[in-house]
């Protein structure tokens, strides 16, 4: 091995070491406190949102056009909470700004789900998940 290869290898090893430490500390910080709650509630929105999409599609196929607005809203929510879940889980510097926006998306989705919540269980569960995520987002972004 010549001197250039040795120095190059040392530089790569040093950079990996530095990155490992900084990524590790960001992950540790994100796995506790408000951001852990944000990631947890965003994941719950993903689960209930996926079930809600399937329900909306089935209802639309039956001719229930009232579910069109719900489907559009839940798709927005899924996009927003999916990104937030990732940003919060690794402590991104953009998580706070995205949490503010996601709180609004979840608030809107919960409002639309509320229309159907009394007679459709999946809508009730989606509404509750969105309300919990909105609350966690507001707390973390404060």
Structure description:
- The chain has a single domain (31-141), classed as Substrate Binding Domain Of Dnak, Chain:A, Domain 2.
- 87% of the residues lie in helices and 0% in strands.
- It has 5 helices and no strands.
- The protein has helices at residues 3-30, 33-61, 67-89, 95-117, 121-141.
- The chain is elongated and about 45 Å long.
- 35% of the residues are buried.
Estimated structural class: mainly alpha
Number of beta-strand segments: 0
The unreliable regions are 2-29
- Count of helical stretches: 5
Largest sheet: none
Give the strand content: under 5%
Distance between the termini: 54 Å
Radius of gyration from the alpha-carbon trace, in angstroms:
20 Å
Shape: elongated
Order of helices and strands: HHHHH
Mean pLDDT: 83
Number of domains: 1
Topology:
Elements: H1 3-30, H2 33-61, H3 67-89, H4 95-117, H5 121-141
């Amino acid at each position: 091995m010549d001197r250039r290869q040795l120095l190059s290898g040392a530089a790569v090893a040093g950079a990996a070491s530095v990155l490992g430490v900084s990524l590790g500390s960001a992950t540790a910080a994100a796995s506790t406190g408000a951001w852990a709650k944000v990631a947890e509630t965003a994941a719950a929105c993903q689960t209930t949102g996926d079930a809600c999409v399937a329900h909306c599609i089935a209802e639309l196929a039956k001719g229930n056009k009232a579910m069109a607005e719900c489907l559009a809203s839940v798709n927005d929510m899924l996009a927003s909470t999916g990104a937030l879940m990732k940003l919060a889980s690794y402590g991104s510097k953009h998580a706070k700004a995205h949490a503010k926006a996601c709180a609004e998306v979840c608030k809107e989705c919960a409002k639309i789900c509320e229309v159907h919540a009394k007679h459709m269980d999946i809508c009730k569960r989606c509404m509750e998940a969105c309300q919990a995520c909105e609350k966690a987002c507001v707390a973390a972004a404060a």
